[in-house]
From TrEMBL:
Source organism of this protein record: Mangrovimicrobium sediminis
Subcellular location: Cell membrane
Signal peptide: none
Phylogenetic classification of the source organism: Bacteria, Pseudomonadati, Pseudomonadota, Gammaproteobacteria, Cellvibrionales
UniProt-recorded name of the protein: VPLPA-CTERM-specific exosortase XrtD
Keyword match Protease: yes
NCBIfam families in alphabetical order: 8TM_EpsH (TIGR02602), EpsI_fam (TIGR02914), exo_archaeo (TIGR04178), exosort_VPLPA (TIGR04152)
Every Methanolan biosynthesis EpsI domain range: 327-529
Length: 549
């Protein structure tokens, strides 16, 4: 009898906290998280809508919910124990949001939002519950766009690999093909590498699908890892196949047929073809392992009924302390969210590059335009690109500057160290050189690159002009972008690059002298076009939408 009374007392203790009260606290916490992270979520959705590589982002939350729903009966049957780890993680998420929001670097806000969801989950059903539902949280990673500099570096490397394999396929058929810079030259037909490699934009959707299939797959773990990791290989090989078929089609059936294939074999058609290969791989893995089961039995897409969910009740009281403390952390963050809701980003006054002189000293420049595709890839900066020559020296200096008045929403500078290999050039020498002695301008330090492609060689100088700083390290530039967003409320910046040929049989010192002579004339006028630390404000841009209005 005493045991029965004790059990009844235990049930009464569990029932002291009304499920309605518990649910209201959970909804309040969820609403507070959405409110605090709202601007970051809006920016993320903008990327889904405007960047094809991330257009799958709309589906990710629904799939993540399905994965969570699959585990709901097992989760309910657990003895829920909200942990103190949840409020601690929520405090970390709020710190990430605060720093990301103040610096206007939304990628920090995006990952802080994901951490906040994890924190809320652990606050509610504890670490054991999180372990059971980890896949639904991990799947949300695929909705977050990669940092721009990381995506560009990855994309350029995959383009190189894909192009090399595709060209090798074409050469197997004894067809002449040559890759020069960003162009695949088939003699009678030239194909831009960016266009040829457009199939790579479906890498992230395919990886997200591969993760989903690997998780619900009924098989050994090494099969699961093979399925997921193969998505990268499949995407690259499918794009290489696309390049190879274009080359063969040009050779045997003409340009019109090749352009028709290029138009038809793109977009979601490439994605569906990749999915077909992925499912063939799954069947092959099972056949090689001696399993003879229906393809439908290989994956578990079952979901619980409402009767299964109603069969158990969670212990609300045990989860209350962690949830209440998490709500207190959010309550402390809300005033900060309101206080910085009107935080502004300063856009400095500067001269447009339309007014940059083509005649200066002894130098005469001829401006050249970037193609629409390149401008789109660069996120449409204000730029100048011109070839300058001086009397008695026919060798040009290619002068290029790209200026961004804001880098907060993902628009950022392309590093030549990433772009040069993507253009087919090899970096044979890379040093940093202080130009103070040569030019008499203190504080100017440049990256000096000697690059080559076949018999051609070029000398390159470049640096990052960042709010009054001259920076040569790409990652240091990212650090100052973060810090200056916090302290200066600015994210403007530019890349300055000079290139000149090194003729065969000539000393590279002649090329150095040419670039230094150019800098001696033009460096003093750059501050008119590249704002320093002391600025006049042209425009005040809201870094957050005013949520209190």
């Amino acid at each position: 009898m005493s045991n029965s009374a004790s059990a009844a007392s235990g049930r009464g203790t569990q029932a002291n906290t009304s499920p309605l009260v518990w649910l209201m606290l959970l909804l309040i916490c969820a609403a507070a998280v959405c409110y605090i992270f709202w601007d970051g979520l809006v920016e993320m959705e903008w990327r889904w809508a405007n960047i094809e590589e991330y257009s799958h982002g709309y589906m990710i939350p629904f799939v993540a919910f399905f994965l969570f729903y699959q585990k709901l009966p097992a989760l309910i049957r657990l003895n829920w124990r909200g942990r103190w780890l949840g409020p601690l993680l929520m405090a970390g998420a709020m710190l990430g949001w605060f720093l990301g929001d103040l610096s206007s670097i939304y990628i920090i806000v995006h990952y802080a939002f994901l951490l906040a969801l994890v924190a809320l989950g652990i606050s509610v059903f504890g670490v054991r519950g999180f372990r059971l539902t980890w896949a639904s949280f991990a799947y949300l990673i695929f909705m977050i766009p990669l940092p721009t500099f990381l995506y560009r570096g990855l994309s350029e490397q995959l383009q190189l690999i894909s192009t090399q394999i595709g060209v090798a396929v074409i050469q197997l058929f004894d067809i002449s093909v040559y890759v020069t810079g960003n162009v695949i030259d088939l003699g009678v037909y030239q194909l831009q590498v960016v266009e040829a490699c457009s199939g790579l934009r479906y890498l992230f959707p395919l990886m997200s699908f591969g993760f989903l299939i690997a998780y619900v797959y009924n098989g050994p773990n090494w099969h699961k890892w093979t399925i997921f990791l193969s998505t990268v290989v499949i995407t690259v090989l499918m794009n290489s196949f696309r390049i190879g078929v274009i080359g063969i089609t040009v050779e045997y059936w003409g340009i019109e047929m090749a352009e028709g294939f290029l138009h038809d074999f793109e977009g979601w058609f490439v994605f569906m073809a990749c999915l077909g290969v992925l499912f063939l791989l799954i069947l092959a893995l099972n056949y090689a392992g001696g399993r003879r089961v229906s393809p439908l039995d290989l994956i578990d897409l079952s979901y619980p009924s409402l009767a299964d969910i109603k069969a158990a009740r969670p212990g609300f009281r045990r989860t209350m302390p962690g949830l209440v403390l998490t709500m207190l952390v959010l309550a402390m963050a809300l005033p900060a969210s309101i206080a910085i809701s009107d935080r502004e980003e300063y856009v400095p006054v500067r001269e447009s590059f339309i007014r940059f002189p083509l005649l200066h000293g002894d130098w005469v420049g001829e401006e050249t335009a970037l193609s629409p595709g390149v401008l789109k890839a660069l996120d449409y900066p204000d730029y100048i690109q011109a070839n300058y020559r001086r009397p008695g020296d026919p060798i040009p200096v290619n002068f290029y500057v790209a200026y961004y008045e804001s880098q907060r929403t993902g628009s950022s500078i392309h590093s030549p160290r990433s772009c040069i290999p993507g253009g087919g050039w090899k970096i044979s020498n890379l040093t940093q050189q202080d130009m103070g002695d040569a030019l008499g301008y203190s504080g100017l330090r440049v990256n000096r690159l000697l690059i080559s492609q076949g018999d051609e060689s070029n000398l390159v100088y470049y640096w990052f002009a960042q709010r009054g700083r001259v920076i040569t390290n790409e990652y240091l530039a990212k650090w100052y972008l973060f810090m200056d967003g916090l302290t200066m409320q600015r994210s403007d910046g530019a890349l300055v690059r000079l290139v000149t040929p090194v003729l065969p049989g000539t000393d590279v010192a002649l090329a150095d002298e040419r670039l230094q002579a150019f800098l001696r004339e033009f460096y003093p006028i750059l501050p008119e076009f590249l704002p320093g630390q002391d600025i006049q404000v042209k425009e005040i841009s809201r870094s957050r939408q005013n949520k209190t209005s």
